[in-house]
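Supplementary material to the annual report.
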Amino acid sequence: MGRKRTKSGKIRLAEVAELAGVSPITASRFFRNPEALSVAKRTRVESAAKELGYVPNLAARALASQRTEVIGVLIPSLTNNVFSDVLRGIYDASEGSRYSIQLSNTRYSILQEEKLLRLFLAQKPAGLIVTGIDQTTESRAMLEAADCPIVQIMEIGPNPVDMMIGFSHHDAARAAVAHLFAQGHRKVGFIGARMDPRVQRRLDGYVSAMKDAALFEQRLVVTTATPTSVTLGGALFTDLLARDPGIDAVFCANDDLALGVLFECRRREIAVPEQIAIVGFNDLEFMASAVPTLSSVRTNRYEMGKTAATMLIDAIDGRRPEQPVLDLGFKVIERQSSLSRRSDNRPAASGAGAANKMVALPSSQD
Amino acid sequence: MGRKRTKSGKIRLAEVAELAGVSPITASRFFRNPEALSVAKRTRVESAAKELGYVPNLAARALASQRTEVIGVLIPSLTNNVFSDVLRGIYDASEGSRYSIQLSNTRYSILQEEKLLRLFLAQKPAGLIVTGIDQTTESRAMLEAADCPIVQIMEIGPNPVDMMIGFSHHDAARAAVAHLFAQGHRKVGFIGARMDPRVQRRLDGYVSAMKDAALFEQRLVVTTATPTSVTLGGALFTDLLARDPGIDAVFCANDDLALGVLFECRRREIAVPEQIAIVGFNDLEFMASAVPTLSSVRTNRYEMGKTAATMLIDAIDGRRPEQPVLDLGFKVIERQSSLSRRSDNRPAASGAGAANKMVALPSSQD
DNA sequence: AGGAACGTTGACAGCGCTACCAGCAACGAC
DNA sequence: GTCGTTGCTGGTAGCGCTGTCAACGTTCCT
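Predicted assembly:
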């Protein structure tokens, strides 16, 4: 026998259809594709829905249509400032669209990512945003088999699964080192934490720049798998100094580390930039107001998230972008921490990327 | 006539049931309430599900059961470090449970919050986490009428809608000011940004402490509606100095501002803490490694998120907490920026809160 | 032994929506 | 006038799962 459960009280599409004097299916069409209705019925359904305060039941819709209006987002970290900017962009872009965001945290584990991917895909998302280009082969296969648009964010590389938006961490690091060279520095150290694939590629960029200048030495590189922090920046810098007290510059794989280095220099009474130059990565908001102001490589994180979500939604709705791979570029922001006194303030080096318009974006908007 | 659509290829519960040699409903029960099955059938269904790689269709489940397994989370900001810590706690707690998180950003607007609330409630969430205690009356009514557990986070106050977890911003601010008094400071300035309800209550706490000591002056307070940033900290401090060059301490409504003040002091060659003492709020990771190290009020953000989600899930599953209102307390962390040389290093002042176990939690875990 | 109580299982119907076609009117082409 | 063609609308039948209740077998009590 059937169920007795109270019919949940909510008004259904059928009620709207009845009030509008149309069939339920016509009412349904009003929400999916209003253009297909005659103007008369369209307005009738519209006002009926408004009058009754109709809210569609997404579960029923998903079940009947065999697809959801959910965009899955897989990012490695919730606390890293970099990702909160990206996320803000994604959420901003999704607002107003009919898609909702389902967020999950891979904690920098590609195995965890694979597990989450399986979970997501089983629910037939409308689209997917994944971080980076280093998936497991299993994940890669799932992504390629998925019948929804996919955007890989944070970096660009060969063989996009579908769409891709980011920049070259390798080139960005090279540009940072080139800037230090231009300022007359030679013994440039590298410190990096966590060493996820993107940090690894920054290291690679650093190494290639140093080797090109025949300045590379292994002992100039200090890294750790530990998650990044300001305190860690100080500790790694201390290590670096112990390995080679003669360094004259440090390229930090992110800004937290750079701030830590700055504090450590202050603690040791090392003059910045006179004795040691510092360059960070990401250009978080505080870099511009440190004393001395800290140089960094600016990346368009908010724009990346926003564009990724916009591209994805467009693709879901059938409007594929002309360019599936978007290089957002970067820009070396030269500040006091790396400019020698005799500096002639040359223009900042910029990364490739057609979309290299560098609007002043707050890296932290609260 | 019926539909021809490919049956989506996926294995359904019916397939699992068939392989296990039970009825679909029995298989269903295995997932909802395994205890209700005999051990024999339980293992049969379990292995059948595993063999087929069965993944339940959440939309169908939601439609049939008239409820979802979604926890709605409403927070004011995605970029504020404070909320990323809370979020990390929430996501960590939800992991492993069958509930998924649906996150939305109110952008510090209670009208936006009301709109989102309406949206969420229409989808019958399993539970809700909302920020703070300052909802519109309309929102408040909706929350009270909602037939799901609700947790208010970030602060505690009278009349919880349901459950509540946080601490007293008022008391925390008072404690910070008391600490400055104890260090011999009298002309204590306040700087605050954004001025959301919680910052407002920190200001209230500051004002009450100052008035109690008969030291309150309006010109010692500098606030703005602008979102917070390190740079802004420097600017507000500059304002404060202009209003009263005689101040001997600053209580900053958050740590970004405090860092900005520190940099501004360095720029102006004001000695910290000799000429100006600084206390921040939240105790973000960098506070401990600044030079001088910066005092702050530690708040248990990660724990707050984690406990909120745990309480909520427990309540959804019918295990209501003994205590619906949880005060997580705070702790004034006294560091160099506010300790006078003659300081006798008294023990740090702690907030109320039964759960005042102050485990060392990294405020930023990456 | 009879029956109540319990634990376990299954049949049935339906949650609210949409895919698929069919049907119908209006229109133009021949 | 007949036959497409187009544009709009509706009927039917599910999507995959679970609430409800009935039915069954077993145990325990009187």
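Chain A touches chain B through 57 residues (CB under 8 Å).
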